[in-house]
Amino acid sequence: MYIRCNMNNENYTINRRHHSILILLLFIGIIPSAFAQRLPYTFNQIRIADNSLENRIYCMLKDQSGYLWLGTASGLKRYDSELTITLKRQKNNPNSLVDNNVLALCEDRQGRIWVGTSEGVCYFDKQKNSFVTLKELNKPDYVCFNIICDSRGDIWFTIRDRGLFKFDTRTNQLQNFRHSEINKQTISSNRIIQNGLIEAPDKKGLWILCNNDFGLNYLDFSSRKIFNRGYNPPKIPVFEVQVPTALTINQNKLVFADNTKHQIVWYDTPSKKITKSFQLEGEWATFLKWQNYFLMSIRIFG
């Protein structure tokens, strides 16, 4: 059996087995017509070490200097074609990595590498060759699944069950956005899912994906208001999606998996309209984003 998807007026056929499988699709901002016939890519395997934890990679980042940073289950690695440098937590060294389980990465305007771990957030100062830890969040089980550096220079990240945080790089102050049962103008849940935080294509706010029925949220930078299905005065229809599971940006549009209708949706923020979608056969989809590419994994049932 096959799944046929239509995107950008191109048809793609994916072989489907008769049992549950996981399919990875590679989408590009502009898809060439030849993509349907063949993939014009060569894949090389990079083995960092024999240690299985060091080869368990959760996130990656290409910095302004061209280095590839890998967040692994056994520390932060900087990789190029000739040398791999491993940075790890060192006991009794406050200037080392806060925790070896690295889950999220971003680079700010100053070139600092921000690191989300299982025990909080820190950043690596390349000039001083040392880490600076946000001590307020350096606690066991302060798991950071998402971290982004926005176009205004601020850092946003999520801590499991503790909501959304903003680090103001001008004042070095932290601000916490949390759910409140008595205030509808707050995020819908304090648990924000992995790959559930992204800056809007027009740079005017953040899209946030929470783990509840009012999952999709939008934080407007100028008004600081948060909109979702529970607070939606403009009556934006995109908030009616009940089970979104992933966010990314493609072709200057917000792209998300709508698992209510089993489809992938392109949403234009300025016009507040869904511009296109395609149907999936499966229960859920997740995205991983790197530069102009994103990987989509789909769970298929047969």
Rg, rounded, reads: 20 Å
Shape: globular
Weakly predicted, low-confidence segments? 1-37, 288-296, 298-302
Give the DSSP E fraction (strand runs of 2 or more residues): over 45%
Structural class: mainly beta
Q: Span between N and C termini? A: 9 Å
Mean pLDDT: 79
Work out the helix count: 0
For the biggest β-sheet, the strand order reads 4-5-6-7
Describe the structure.
The protein is globular, with a radius of gyration of 20 Å. The chain has a four-stranded antiparallel beta sheet with strand order 4-5-6-7, with no helix packed on it. It is built from no helices and 25 strands. 0% of the residues lie in helices and 46% in strands. With 302 residues, the protein is mainly β. The termini are close together.
Task: From the structure above, extract its key features.
single chain; mainly beta; four-stranded antiparallel beta sheet; 0% helix
Please specify the SSE layout and strand pairing.
Elements: E1 2-7, E2 10-15, E3 21-28, E4 57-62, E5 68-72, E6 75-79, E7 84-87, E8 102-107, E9 113-117, E10 120-125, E11 130-133, E12 146-149, E13 155-158, E14 164-168, E15 173-177, E16 192-199, E17 205-210, E18 216-220, E19 226-227, E20 244-250, E21 253-258, E22 263-268, E23 273-279, E24 285-290, E25 293-300
Antiparallel strand pairs: 1-2, 3-25, 4-5, 5-6, 6-7, 8-9, 9-10, 10-11, 12-13, 13-14, 14-15, 16-17, 17-18, 18-19, 20-21, 21-22, 22-23, 24-25
